[in-house]
Amino acid sequence: MRWRRLLGVVFPPACVHCGEPVEDGPFAALCGNCAAQLQPAAAAAAVRFEGPARALVLALKYRRQREVLEDIKTVFRRSPQVLARARGAVIVPVPLAALRERERGFNQAELIGRALASAAPGARLARLLRRVEEGPPQATLGRRERLANAKNAFALAAGARLNPASRHLIIDDVTTTGSTLESCAQALSRAGCTRIDAAAFAQG
């Protein structure tokens, strides 16, 4: 690596933020220093994915009962750890694959994100990401398969406009390994965002 610096030229792979050379690997887009600063903290979740909370998610996701969003909003309002992250933030829902969203008729993460935005002062929702690789649903996979399935699965949406200085909060319905949220965070960081956080309605 030293000869590259002596020449004053950085060849790929290089950190997308500071330009320092990086080794190939699961976080090759970022050097160690930038990765430590840009990776989101552990996602905040309002509830555990069990009991009534699980029933709310399943009713929305599979039975299309949008009326449960009022209950989800109430839960968010009683979740200071999630509200603290959402206040004044741009809320970015985890995108579904285009085909899956057409079949379902909606993206549950987006609906939950809108509920959170309406509960958190100064928050707004923006569809900034798209899914570029369509794999099997995360819920059907084990931990190792989830990590592989989520890697490099997201990119900036066509025509998306963002302010890199804004706080961005990625939101999903349920988080388990955090692999999906992390992959979304990496997509935002590649687009220049430097203040990225993550949350979910429920922790599985």
Compose a concise summary of this entry.
Helices cover 40% and strands 17% of the residues. It is of the alpha/beta class.
Please explain how this structure is put together.
With 204 residues, the chain is of the alpha/beta class. It has helices at 2-7, 32-38, 51-63, 68-77, 80-86, 98-104, 108-119, 143-150, 179-190; strands spanning 44-48, 90-93, 124-125, 129-131, 154-156, 167-175, 195-203. The chain has a five-stranded parallel β-sheet with strand order 1-7-6-2-3, with helices on both faces. β6, α9 (179-190) and β7 (195-203) form a beta-alpha-beta unit. α3 packs across α4 (68-77) and α4 crosses α7 (108-119). The protein is globular.
Task: Draw up the topology in text.
Blueprint: H1 2-7, H2 32-38, E1 44-48, H3 51-63, H4 68-77, H5 80-86, E2 90-93, H6 98-104, H7 108-119, E3 124-125, E4 129-131, H8 143-150, E5 154-156, E6 167-175, H9 179-190, E7 195-203
Parallel strand pairs: 1-7, 2-3, 2-6, 6-7
Antiparallel strand pairs: 4-5
Helix pairs in contact: 3-4, 4-7
Shape annotation: globular
Give the SSE string.
HHEHHHEHHEEHEEHE
Round the mean pLDDT to the nearest integer and report it.
82
Major β-sheet profile: 5 strands, parallel
Give the helix level as a range of percent.
40-55%
What percent of residues are in strands? 15-25%
What's the end-to-end separation, in Å? 42 Å
Provide the low-confidence segments as ranges: 1-12, 24-29
Across the major sheet, the strand order is 1-7-6-2-3
Class computed from helices, strands and strand pairing: alpha/beta
Total helices: the number is 9
The rounded Rg comes to: 18 Å
Using DSSP, what is the number of strands?
Answer: 7
